[in-house]
Write a structure and sequence with these properties.
By secondary structure, the protein is mainly beta. It has three helices and 13 strands, in the order E-E-E-E-E-H-E-E-E-E-E-E-E-H-H-E. The C terminus is likely disordered.
């Protein structure tokens, strides 16, 4: 799954030439968490524009505002919660890193993943609009797939990261489901890097540059009798 990510630079506003001016939500963020508002890029005819979504997709037909932060690529068409959004409401979610956790005894060690050159990239996302008594909520989910060789040592899922050509296809309104499935694959691990980071990232209130600094791996103490 993908439960936390970063967007530390305004360079994401260069995707498709969308200007950064007038977008106050594009500020450095080191610990983006579910239920928070996140920037995304959507297609508006032939144009691309930024939108602001709550992270945690609430299907339009849902009776309660319960969201899904991730959607599995393998079941997008089959799951009622995601199928219509997969066909009609796709988006790119800009990021420059994300976190995953590896269990070490009772402790889960967080790791930070990013591109080798630390550049901005795009998750494949879907979105929907839910109408409640207090108003409407636009929300999104990040698509996940099987892990590449780098992620496989940490977790059994990873977010779908799209290269520039795949980004174009993902936003094409006339793209067919069969075409789209071909790009929902693991991003090459050789183009990424990772390292352990502080467990402070576990708290969504933490949001500072120290979260993405490498730390020593924490080891659980061993117990036993010595003879």
């Amino acid at each position: 799954m993908c439960g936390r990510y970063t967007l530390r630079t305004r360079r994401s506003a260069k995707f498709y030439g969308v200007p950064a001016s007038g977008l106050p939500f594009l500020v450095p963020r080191f610990n983006i968490a579910p239920s928070q508002d996140v920037p995304a890029i959507v297609a508006s005819g032939a144009r691309r524009e930024f939108a602001l979504f709550q992270w945690g997709l609430i299907p339009s037909w849902s009776k309660e505002p319960k969201g899904f932060i991730n959607a599995r690529a393998e079941t997008l068409e089959a799951k009622p919660s995601f199928s219509e959004s997969f066909q009609r409401r796709r988006c790119l979610i800009p990021a420059d890193g994300f976190y995953e956790w590896k269990r070490n005894g009772k402790f889960k060690q967080p790791y930070f993943f990013q591109m080798q050159d630390e550049s901005v990239f795009a998750f494949a996302g879907i979105w929907d609009r839910w109408q409640g008594t207090a108003g409407s909520t636009s929300s999104c989910a990040i698509i996940t797939t099987t892990p590449n060789e780098l992620l496989a040592t940490i977790h059994d899922r990873m977010p779908v990261i799209l290269n520039p050509k795949a980004q174009e296809m993902w936003l094409r309104q006339d793209a067919l489901p069969g075409e789209l499935k071909t790009i929902l694959v693991p991003f090459p691990g050789s183009e990424m890097k990772s390292f352990p980071v502080s467990p402070r990232v576990n708290g969504p209130e933490a949001d500072d540059a120290q979260l993405v600094e490498e730390v020593a791996i924490r080891h659980e103490p061993t117990t036993g009798l010595l003879f």
